[in-house]
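Example complex used in Figure S2.
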Amino acid sequence: MPKIVDIDERRQELTDAAARLIARSGLGAATLRDVAAEAGLTTGALTHYFADKRELLHCTFIASLQLRTARRPDDRPDEPHAALRAALAGALPMDEDTRRHWMVTVAFCAEAAGDAELAATQRDAYRDYRSRVTRLVERCTDGSVHDDVEIAEQVIAAVDGVALQALFDPESWSPARQLAALDRALESVGCVPVSAAHC
Amino acid sequence: MPKIVDIDERRQELTDAAARLIARSGLGAATLRDVAAEAGLTTGALTHYFADKRELLHCTFIASLQLRTARRPDDRPDEPHAALRAALAGALPMDEDTRRHWMVTVAFCAEAAGDAELAATQRDAYRDYRSRVTRLVERCTDGSVHDDVEIAEQVIAAVDGVALQALFDPESWSPARQLAALDRALESVGCVPVSAAHC
DNA sequence: TTTTTCATAGTACAACTGTTATATAACACG
DNA sequence: CGTGTTATATAACAGTTGTACTATGAAAAA
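Predicted assembly (398 residues):
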């Protein structure tokens, strides 16, 4: 009887619009009216899919956290070192999409400090990411090292640091340079495919 | 004839209040009324020292950028490796002050993307930081390496990455652990005091 | 076609924002 | 001790915001 629309798709269109605005000019630019307009709708439609502004922003945050570290479908190599490298490379802001979602993540950081729900979302996403990287590191070191978690954290720190610099100086951080920095970080923790004599 | 107050000190009290609010609950919490109240004043006094909200926020941003990487007065060692380590350690959020100013920096990141003036401030501060670290790296490598800039960027990335993780998970990132991560990063680029046989 | 139900637009409103203007209090100095 | 200047408080203003409500449109099902 009703007019049928794909609710999830509509919701994603709206969170995408919010993410674009936030990435472009910060959280303050994510007005209900502006988000709706960016999506080609009005506030009437927006409130039909999100009860609150709070819910809209929370969903936008979740979507960006997921998309930022989501694997590209075409690079799931079986070889441990290649898999680790691919997973970390996927977190680098090498295309416009990852850049935008990195930006959203950063924009929410301070907000999350004073919002328990956002903080929990952030914490969970990070734990998930860290455990995934740790598992990949374990497959590389093959149990020969006692603290895979520390290695994972060191590599994640390197990736995050590069990402932060690349976000705000994209011209001097081409994808190639980002990958080079990643490879250097991987080499320094001994997670490189060929056990090259780096002595 | 007038009532005399230290203008610069008053301005700093206000930007400090703004920084506290921003670090606690994001840029949106930095209302003129709330900032003034946090400083124990009212908007009337605030507008007496800052023409705009824009000016207040810009000054808050500048102050946080400076304080975040400012050297502690008591650790300016002459030995190159110790100097490099001290400079980088100063950027880590190991006390409440550095934590707060890191938070402010992060909060402004997305905003700076859509604001040319903020972006320029951020870019300049980062360039200054990078060149300072590069100079310290040069003194360590003693010209034996061809690309000190890349080493500096790698180390900065490691520090920033650790800082980002430590900001939102302070309990698992004690100062000692942050320093350990820094030392590991320094070792992996060969900037350690004793040229230990790490082979 | 008719009916029913959802999708969307439009509008109204109270709360809050930055800003400006006005009034009062405090104090250094002649 | 006045007194003129500054510091601060208070109040008023227009614009914007999130939200709630109503009305209209569209399309599937009967």
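Residues 1-4, 31-33, 43, 47, 52-53 of chain A lie near DNA strand D (CB under 10 Å from a C1'). Chain A has a mean pLDDT of 91.
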